[in-house]
Amino acid sequence: MKNKAWWFVPPKDWSYRLLLVAAFTAPFSLLAGRIFLASAFGALLYARFRHAEPIRCTKICWFWVAFIIISFLVSLQGITPVGSIGDLTKLLWFAGIPVAATLIDNRRRAIALLAAYVNGSIVRSLDILLLRVPRAWHQSEREFMEEVIHRGSMTHGQVLMLAMIGIFGLLLMDISRRGGWRFISTQISRFAILTLAMIVNFKRGSWAAVTIVLALFGMLTGKIRFLLILVAIIMLSSFHPYVRSRVAHLQNELQLEHGGRLVMWTKIAPELLRQHPLGVGFRGVTPEVMQATARSLGVRVEPHRNHLHSNFIEIPVTVGWGSFLVYLVWMGMALHAGLSCSHTASNTTGKILALTYSLMLVSLILNGIVEYNMGDAYIVLPYGMIMGVLANGKNAFAATE
After folding, report:
1. CA dihedral sign of residues 81, 83, 89, 91
2. For residue 23, what are the CA distances in angstroms to 28, 66, 121?
3. Considering the entire predicted model, what is its pTM?
4. CA 179 to chain centre
5. Rounded Cα–Cα distance for residues 341 and 358 (Å)
6. How far is CA 112 from CA 20, 61, 98, 144, 303, in A?
7. Which pLDDT band, with edges at 50, 70 and 90, does 299 fall under?
8. Is 178 left (phi over 0), alpha (psi -120 to 50) or beta?
9. pLDDT tens-digit profile of 317-328?
10. Which residue in 348, 393, 400 sits closest to 113, CA to CA?
11. By C-alpha distance, which of 351, 159, 370 is closest to 260?
C-alpha cells in the first residue's frame, strides 16, 4: 500500500505540526511565533467545525478567559480606556493554553514540544554569542563586557531561563532511560551553550530564578552531583568583574534615591492604588503617569518606565484586585496540576517530564516577582504552551500514547 504524502494529514495533525514550529520560533522571532500559533489555532478550529474534533478547554483555560474579561471591564474605567483595551489583545496569545491542552495528549508530543522550544532557544543563544558580542566589540563608549551585557534584555534572560530548565529535564530523562552517551553529551553541550548565553546576557532576576529552580530540580530528583556542577558554574561566573559589579549594584535597588523598583513598589504603586482603587487599566502605567505620580510625591523615578517591574504589584494596580485573585488561582491550579502528575506518573520519565513543565512555570512566577512578565509578548507565548500542557497533564505525561 502506497504511503500518503506528508502533507496529506487531518487538520488536527497539521495543527500539531504548526504548534511545534510556533514553539521553535517563539524564542527568537515574536512575529513567527505568533503566526504559527495563530495558524495552529486556526487549523484546530477548522478540525472542530469540519470534523467535530473537540477542543479541550479546562478550568485553567476558563481562568484565562476570566482574567481577560475582568481586565477588560476594569480598563473601561481606566486612565486611557482606548489604549488599555487595545493592549489587551496581548493576552489573547495565551491561546496556547487550549491549543496545547488539546494537541499535547501523549508523552511523545510533550517531549517534542519541549525540545522544539529548547532548540529555538539555542538559536537565540547563538544570536547572543555570535552576533551581539562582535557588535559590542566595535563600540567605543563602554568597556567591552559592559556593552555586551548592556545589549541584553530581560526578555532574552527569561527565554534562556526556560530553556535551561527544559534542557535539564531532557538530560535527566535521557539518563533515566539509559540513553546513549551521544544523546547525553548532546544535551550537555546544548546546556553549556545556553548557560554561556545566560552569563553573557546576565539579567539578575532570570539568573536568580533559574539558579533557584535548577537547585530545586536537583533536590527533588536526587541528582545532587548536578547541584555541585551548578554551584561550580555560579562560582566561576561570579569571578568576572562585571558580573560582580552587577551583583553589587543590587544595593542600589534598595535605595529610594535610585528611582528603581523600591520607589515604584513603596511609593508609586500605593499612590496609584489610592487614586484608582479599581485599577488604572491594562498597561495604564505609562511613562507620563509614572513621572506625574513621582512629581506629586516629590520622589524620583527612572525615566521611560512604563510598568512596575512585578506581576504581584502591576496586576492589582492596573487591572484590580479581582484580576489579581484570578491570577493567583490560575497559576496555582496550573502548578497543582503539574506537580500532582509528577507524583502520580507511572515511571521516572513521566515524573521528570511533569516536573520539568511545572518548574518552568515556577521560574516564570519567581521571575514575575521582580519583572512584569505577564505583559511581555515574547514570554506570553511559552506561558500559554506550558500551562496548556499542564492542563492536560494526565494524558501528556502518561506512559501510553
Report:
1. negative
2. 10, 25, 10
3. 0.92
4. 29
5. 9
6. 7, 22, 18, 38, 43
7. very high
8. left
9. 999 999 999 999
10. 393
11. 370
Q: What is the pLDDT of residue 400?
A: 56
Amino acid (1-letter code) at residue 256 = L
| Residue position matching grid coordinates 514540544 | 113
Residue for cell digits 500542557? Answer: 389
34-37-40-46 Cα dihedral, nearest 10 degrees: -60
Locate cell 496581548: which residue? 90
| Distance in angstroms (rounded) separating the CA atoms of residues 353 and 231 | 23
Q: What is the SS3 string spanning the chain?
A: CCCCCCCCCCHHHHHHHHHHHHHHHCCCCHHHHHHHHHHHHHHHHHHHHHHCCCCCCCHHHHHHHHHHHHHHHHHHCCCCHHHHHHHHHHHHHHHHHHHHHHHCCCHHHHHHHHHHHHHHHHHHHHHHHHHHHHHHHCCCCCCHHHHHHHCCCHHHHHHHHHHHHHHHHHHHHHHHCCCCHHHHHHHHHHHHHHHHHHHHHCCHHHHHHHHHHHHHHHHHHCCHHHHHHHHHHHHHHCCCHHHHHHHHHHHHHHCHHHCCHHHHHHHHHHHHHHHCCCCCCCCCCCHHHHHHHHHHHCCCCCCCCCCCCCHHHHHHHHHHHHHHHHHHHHHHHHHHHHHHHHHHCCCHHHHHHHHHHHHHHHHHHHHCCCCCHHHCHHHHHHHHHHHHHHHCHHHHCCCCC
- The answer, yes or no, to whether residue 140 has pLDDT greater than 60, is no
Type of residue at 261: R
- The CA distance from 313 to 220, in Å, is 30
Question: Which among 39, 34, 33, 32 is positioned nearest to 18, based on CA atoms?
Answer: 39
Report the mean per-residue pLDDT for the chain: 88
Percent with pLDDT over 90 in the chain = 63
- C-alpha angle with apex 333: 332 to 338, nearest 5 degrees? 100
Quick one: which of 134, 164, 136 has its CA closest to 149? 136
The answer to whether 379 and 386 have CB atoms below 8 angstroms apart is: no
| Dist. CA 223–CA 232, nearest whole Å | 15
Q: Are 56 and 101 in contact (CB under 8 A)?
A: yes
The rounded distance, in Å, linking the Cα atoms of 57 and 317 is: 29
